[in-house]
Amino acid sequence: MNDRTDTQPAHGIARAPRGRFSARLVGPCTGERRAVLRHQWDIQAGRSVPLPAAGLTSSADSRASIHGLRIHDVLITQLCYASTAADGAWIDSRYFSDMLVVDVVEKGSWGFARARDRDQLLVSAGQFIVRHTGPPWRFAVKAHTNTTTKLVLPVAHLGPLIHRRPVLGSADSAEMRLLLAHARMIDDRLDDLSPAGARAARNALLELALGVLTQQVDGTEPQLAPALVQAAKDLVRGHLSDPELSPRLLARELNISVRTLHRAFAATDESVTAHIRHQRLEQTRLALTGPLARPGISELARFWQFADTSHFVRAFKKQYGQTPAQYARAQGTRDVP
After folding, report:
1. How do residues 11-54 score in pLDDT, each as one tens digit?
2. Mean pLDDT throughout 219-238?
3. What are the structural domains, with CATH classification, of the chain?
4. Is the distance from CB of 123 to CB of 64 less than 8 angstroms?
5. Which of 32, 91, 196, 259 is the most buried (most CB within 10 A)?
């Protein structure tokens, strides 16, 4: 690959209350090129933001990238490292000072160790680690692709909970589901948030991080309702064909009461049950216009857990203004049986 470094402009400078940043390193990045990138990065994101470790891009096939956002004193980033030459090489990570760092590993495996500590922690895909960065840590990745979602948070009222020791757990825990759902919402809506909204989003993120450390979330806290709704919707997408999908199942997965879940959805334009039905209907609509063989009405009704064919047809017509057969014909596809 060609030796290349790229940065993309952020929406504002490091002192701005919010903004986006990104960078990509391809091939060897040494000497003058590294200094130039470091200077560009300091202007774009600030010295406290972790630039992809140049130590992992010393060979021609190395790639490193970071995409993220800042909202006040909180950072939400995704880092990806890929190299056949990065097999277990330990890299110093000294860009943070007295912060709480959450790493949720999505691909590969990441090794973590304090700079002067022989004890090493291996965090694989589907797991997370929360650590305090005083003193600094080192990390190492195996060859091929390694991706982590990294949240950097002020340590003030969170640090004492980990007693300077890292906390490890499953990314599928109810508390981590809520934290990641809220982080995704911030990413999606960052540019539309008012100053008050940005501050509230930041505060909710810290409250949810507290929930990860204590393994419990106060579902009755109003500012957490959007995160509860988003996490529930994420779960719905993965369980649409499950006959057990219901508000009760979602509440159990999120470790909250059914009443709390309904209360969170009350601020949206649909109930939990309506959201499940609408998502299932959307899947049937896509199936009717897809490139593959068209399923029959009864097959669609059965697969997507409608009570019977008549119920499915009525719900589809109410949602889209046409019966499934009429909709398929209007899209230029053949009739469905």
Report:
1. 333 445 788 888 777 766 566 666 666 676 666 666 656 555 55
2. 86
3. 4-171 (2.60.120.10), 191-268 (no CATH), 281-330 (1.10.10.60)
4. no
5. 91
C-alpha angle 1-141-36 in degrees, rounded to nearest 5: 50
Higher pLDDT, 118 or 223: 223
Instruction: Work out the angle at residue 308's Cα, subtended by the Cα atoms of residues 305 and 287, and round it to the nearest 5 degrees.
Output: 55
Two structure tokens written together for 117: 């500590």
150 contact partners, CB below 8 Å, separation of at least 6? 50, 68, 75, 76, 77, 78, 79, 101, 102, 103, 104
Complete edge-to-edge strand list for the sheet that includes strand 63-71: 4-8, 18-26, 63-71, 74-83, 144-154, 99-107, 127-132, 167-170
Tell me: cis bond preceding 154? Omega within 30 of 0 counts.
no
**What string of H, E and C letters represents the secondary structure of 96-149?**
CCCEEEEEEEEECEEEEEECCCCCCEEEECCEEEEEECCCCEEEEECCEEEEEE
CB 295 within 8 A of CB 284: no
Contact 45, 70 (CB under 8 A): yes
Rounded-to-10 torsion of CA 225, 230, 235, 236: 100
What global pTM score does this model have? 0.75
Strands 4-8 and 167-170: unpaired
Q: Which of 91, 210, 123 is nearest to 160 (CA)?
A: 210
- What pLDDT does residue 109 have? 86
Nearest CA to 240 out of 290, 279, 295 is that of 279
| Bridge partners, residue 153, by sequence | 100
The contacts of residue 292 (CB under 8 Å, 6+ apart) are none
- Distant-in-sequence, close-in-space partners of 62: CB < 8 Å, separation ≥ 6: 25, 26, 27, 28, 56, 81, 82, 83, 85, 86
